[in-house]
Every structure is written in C-alpha cells, then in structure tokens.
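Input record, target 12 of the design panel.
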C-alpha cells in the first residue's frame, strides 16, 4: 500500500443569511427583477440556474406552482439538461410569493421570467430582437446588485457568500417548520433513495397536501409591500388580498 501526501481537508463553511439580511437584500435591490429573484430563490429553494431558465409558461396560471425542466448554462444558453433526474419537478410556492409573481408577470404569457433589458449583438446575430427572449445574466446581477448589497451588509468576502445562501435559507426554513424530508428533497430537486420515497411516492402527487405543507412552512421573511403592487399603482389601490398578505 502506498500513501499520497495531501493537505488535510478543512471543514467546509456553508455561509448563511439571517432573516434581517435577506429582507435587506430584497428591500434594497436596485431593480425590481433582482428583488423578485432574491425573494423567489429564498422562498422556493430553486437553484439559480433553474430560476434563470424559467419561462412564463412554466408557471401555473395563478403562479402557485413552478415547473422546473430546464436551466441556464454557461454561455447564456438555456437547455433542458438539469443537474440530476430529480431536478425535474414541480415546486409549490407560498401564496404571498404567488401574488408577487402575478404582479411581476403582469399578464405576460411569453418569454423568460427573468429577462434582459436589451439584446446584445450576439443574440441579435441569432435573429433575437426582443429582450424577453434573452434570460438575465447572473454575472450582471452580481455586478449591478448583489455585490454592492453584500458589501453594505459587511458580507461577500467569504467563500460561499452569494446566491446559494438563498437556497440554504429555504432549506433551513423547511426544517424549522418540520416539513417531511421526502417533500423537502422533492422541492429541492434532491434524489431521495430512502424507502419512504419508495412507499410514499403518491404523496408527492397529492397537490392538496403539498399546498398545505407550503403554507405550513411559511416564508421566514417579509416581502416588501412594493413587490405586491404593480409599479403604476398607488398604495391606496391595494386590494384586500395584497393587504392581507403584507399583514401576514
């Protein structure tokens, strides 16, 4: 037997966001689409690449469920190749997130959920002239929004401080709310090889139960009232649904 001299593996540090830090990111994001992206990631457990691959057609009519079947890959393309087979799934979202998405989508039926504001020359060369058909570049979000916000929080200098902290926040919230691991793994796109998955597979198709579980889990943070009202609406025009969700 031979030995290889390698440095001792250090314990990995998985950086986390507090509720107050998350609410700061959502509240102070310089663009509405960035704020909606941060809130969605922290409330659904979607991977960044999965969220940026979402098209409007992947949302249910009431925006209460999201079907994940593609992701944004390096270079800007969106492909129907996910990290694992388990990543193809339908994720239920909290009613307040659904309300936020309905306002953000604003009746739009086509294009990417998070799209660019202009079409670059590479996409124009492909014949794309409408920016709704170009998914947002995560590096631009980091440059124009996340880096500065993290700096204001005194964060961003440690490895692992970035988008993935939003996903970790959701996992912590689901555990805190005692949501069954079978459902947690399903919503997160994690492979579950336990006997629970074998014997209780039908549970994951019980839409009534899943919606009850997402309400039970809650969000663990508050959504700014501004994200629940269309930009053109004044506070006096908020409907009862929005007022109730903000108060909750």
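The sequence produced for target 12 reads:
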């Amino acid at each position: 037997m031979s030995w290889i001299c390698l440095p001792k593996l250090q314990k990995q540090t998985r950086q986390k966001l507090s509720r107050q830090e998350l609410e700061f990111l959502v509240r102070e994001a310089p663009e509405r689409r960035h704020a909606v992206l941060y809130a969605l990631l922290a409330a659904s457990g979607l991977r960044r690449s999965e969220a940026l691959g979402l098209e409007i057609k992947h949302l249910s009519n009431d925006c209460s469920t999201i079907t994940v079947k593609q992701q944004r890959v390096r270079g800007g393309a969106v492909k129907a190749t996910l990290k694992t087979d388990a990543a193809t799934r339908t994720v239920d979202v909290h009613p307040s997130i659904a309300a936020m998405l309905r306002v953000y989508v604003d009746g739009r039926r086509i294009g990417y959920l998070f799209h660019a504001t202009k079409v670059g020359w590479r996409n124009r060369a492909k014949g794309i002239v409408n920016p709704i058909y170009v998914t947002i570049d995560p590096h631009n979000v980091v440059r124009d929004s996340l880096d500065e916000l993290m700096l204001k929080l005194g964060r961003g200098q440690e490895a692992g401080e970035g988008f993935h902290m939003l996903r970790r926040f959701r996992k912590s919230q689901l555990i805190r709310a005692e949501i069954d691991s079978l459902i947690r793994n399903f919503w997160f796109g994690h492979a579950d090889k336990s006997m629970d998955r074998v014997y209780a597979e039908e549970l994951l198709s019980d839409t009534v139960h899943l919606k009850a579980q997402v309400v039970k889990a809650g969000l663990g943070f508050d959504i700014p009232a501004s994200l629940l009202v269309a930009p053109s609406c004044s506070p006096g025009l908020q409907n009862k649904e929005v007022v109730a969700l903000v108060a909750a």
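The chain has eleven helices and four strands.
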